[in-house]
Structures are given as C-alpha cells and as structure tokens.
Amino acid sequence: MLTSTFRLLRIVYTVIRFRLDVFIPFALLPWYLRYTIGALCSIGRKRASENKGERLRLALESLGPIFVKFGQILSTRRDLLDDDIANELAKLQDKVPPFAGDVAQAIIERDLKAPVLELFAEFSVTPLASASIAQVHTAKLHSGEDVVVKVIRPDIEKTISKDIRLLYTLAHLVANLSVDGRRLRPVEVVTDYEYTILDELDLAKEAANTGLLQRNFTPSDLLYVPQVYWDYSHRNVMIMERISGIPVADINALHAANVDMKCLAERGVEIFFTQVFSHSFFHADMHPGNIFVDATNPKKPKYIAIDCAIMGSLDDADKNYLARNLLAFFQRDYRLVAELHVESGWVPKGTPVHAFESAIRSVCEPMFAKPLKDISFGQVLIGLFQTARRFNMEVQPQLVLLEKTLLNIEGLGRQLYPDLDLWVTAKPFLERWMSEQVGPKRVIEEVKKQAPQWAGQLPQIPNLVFTALSQMSHQAERMQAQTDSINKLSKELKKSRRNLPFRLLGLVSLGAAWVVTDPASLTHLKDADFASIGLFLVGLYLLVLKS
Question: Global pTM?
C-alpha cells in the first residue's frame, strides 16, 4: 500500500511538472478540485514546454512502460487527437530513450552463456531501436545471415510490478466507491492486463508466438513474419531475421514507392479479421512501430509484422457472438443487437429488450446519417458502452485486447487511406465466415479435426466393446435381481392383505379364550374350559396356519 501511495504521488507530481492540466475536463470536476489542481499545476507553468503534445509524451516516458503503452495506443487515433499530439505520441513507438549498449551486451552474454564475438560475426553496440519493454541491436551470424537481437530492459519487471500494484489499488477503489465502478469490473481488467504485460517480458513466449503467426500466414501474400533463430532465443534475449521494409507510418515513403494506399489499408483490415475469425490468434499490439510494408509489388503491398509479445485469442462462442453482433449492426437490426447482449450475459437476463433496443437505436441511427466511411467504429463502441451503462452492462475482460486492436487497426487504416470504409471491407468477410459455420464444410472440418483422436482409439475398440457388453450383462443381472425382489415383496404384501381378516379373527378368538377361562379351574376340566380351549385353538389356527 505504501509503495502504491508513493507511485500515486509521483503521478500527481508528473501531472504538475508537465502541466497536464490542459487535458483535464475541469468543467466536470467539483469547484474545490478545479481550484486545487489549477493551483498545483501553476507551479510547473514556467518550466513546461509550450508544446502540449511534447509535454504529454515526456510525462508518459517518465512514468514508465505501462504509460508508454497507453501513449502508443493513443498515437494511432488521429481521428480523436490533434495532429501535433498524435505526431509526438508516435515517437513512443520506437524512440523511447535506450539503455546502455554495454548493458545489453552483458545481458546477452549472461543469458546465452558465450561472449558476443563467439555468438556473432558482427554486433552493433548502438541500438537500432528502443521501445518501452526492450531494445533491438543489429548483428550478423557466422553463417552470414543478418539478424536483430532483442534484449529486455534491465530491472523492468520491478517497475512494472509497482505500476500493477498501483493499478490494483485504484481498481479496488473504483469498484468499492460506485456501482458504475463495479459494472466496469476494473479488478478483472487489471488482472487481464497484468497477464498480458508480464507475458511481454518473456521473449521465449514471444518467439513461440512469432513461430505460430508465421505458420498461420505461410501460404498467404498478405503478411510476412520474420524467422526466429531458436538456438539463440532465451527469456531475456531473442534473435530473429532482420527485415527490410518501409515503416507503415512513413506515408511519404509509401507514396514515393507508388504503393496502392487503398489496397494497403483494406489488406490491413483483412489481416485483422483473418487472424480473429479464421486463426483464433491475433497480433494485439499492432501499432505503427511494429508494422512495415514490403513494396516490391506496390499494387499488392505486403505487410511485415514484428513484436509478437502480445497476442489475443477468442473461443468459438466469443467469435460467433462478435460476428453476429457486427453483422446485425451493419444491417441496423438493433433488436438483434439487444437480444445478443442479453443472450451472451453482457447485460442481466431480466433486461427489457425493447427498452435496450430503443436506446441502441438512439445512439446508432444518427451515425448512419453520415457516409459509412466517415463513421468511426471506435466512436460507435464508446456510444454503445455509454448507453448500456443504465442497463448495467459489464465490461468483458476477454474482449479488451480485441477492442484495443480494432481501434488500432481503424486508426492506422484511416491514417493510410482517409476514405477507408471499414464496414464495406469487413462485412463480406463476416458474412462468408458465418456461412462457413453452418454449412457442410464446417461438418467436414469437425470430422477431420476429430479423426486423429478416433484413429488413436481404433486398437482399443474390441476391448471397449467387450467391456461395454460385460457392463450391460452385469447391469441386466442386477436389474433382474431387483425385479425379482420387488415381485416377491409385492406377493408378500398381497398375501398379507388377504390374510388380514383371519388374523383379526384369530386375535379375537384368543382374546375370548382368555376372558372365559377361569385360572382356578385349570386343575380340572369343566365344560367352560373346553369352550376356552376351543376358542384358543381356533385363534391359534387363524393366526398361524391361515397366515
């Protein structure tokens, strides 16, 4: 708790130091907060740069990797930011201040257990690029291949752990203070983000992700993924093929290479939907610093993707739900959108669908008054989430990465080709995917998927059949024994019901014999005694023999 408090104080200090009060919506704050924040931020007035975009970038850099990641996401949203701010935040993608090259060399030698000169024919101590989590150096293997060496920043895990603890503190605070806070499920969101960013610190996992993404797109001309050199890869060091391409954010260079920008933007959208729906494995950190363009064929440009540390995945239920929602939205079927939200559990089961449908329509219809190419999908999501607040809609942590990636793709696509129509590009893909889920092709794929498992069970089939038949035989014997017991009990009950009158008469006879018998006359027989003996014998006969 103490560490989180100090970290929070540092954030407040950073806001003051870099005069970030210009980004705070003062009109929404209580008067006492407006005056307090204004007075504090005036301290940094003289020392702060005049460029507010630069101030924001420097502040995020000073706060560490998690905040740099936030800035990277913002940099792609030029439809939401002024150009000067977007241009400054774009520098966070690969121009974060590097750490010393000799420190990187020491990490490489420690993890790969050999001197750099033994590992490589050439090695550049000066980094090629530096990002929030790691930096990259160029090298050449003794076999002649040009490679890049990625090295994790020293002690970065400690910094991230402090920020994660602070985020948990803030998340619990938000969840405990308001109903809206609990609806947003902030603790689960932080947990999901913690899992993601800690994975980014393990380059062995990134190497595995890179290999899988490469296999997924091996027969495709849409995306190229560099080769990983497995013998040189470790938790803190990864070596991969050095690629050459035009940075996707270098619009002037792309135009100079006569790249078809419309095709390039549409291919980016196609790659995203292919990863999500066809592969169920998508690159979730697609900011411009991680994407290059192979302009060898400018009419059909090919993307090159690096940095596969953050990857996302959706199960079949999530994919089906997402595709149906998007198609329903494209078709303005707000009733279906509302029903799908209830069906999936995004909103409580008792939510009145007609009221939710009306609320969604009130948000979406004004957007459709504009041309589709001018509609921001990010703005649609924001509008839907704000509308759903009064219906207790909950944030779905498993879709947070997908939403973030989709926002990145839209921002990048609009940057490349401002007239990009995301809806027209995505709709045919989604319709084709949905048709494949219910057709004979899907059945055949499922049979193929299960075939190896069935084949592995073939040698066991005789034993399985014998065991099943034996179990059936034993079960039949048990059932027959139970049936016989039930029948026997039933017969006894029926017999008992038939003999009940005789038993009652027998009891009456015994009682009468007891009443008429004179105990004093038992020493000699008289006529009365013969009557009592007769009643006794009759009663005994009725009780014993007739029962």
Answer: 0.67
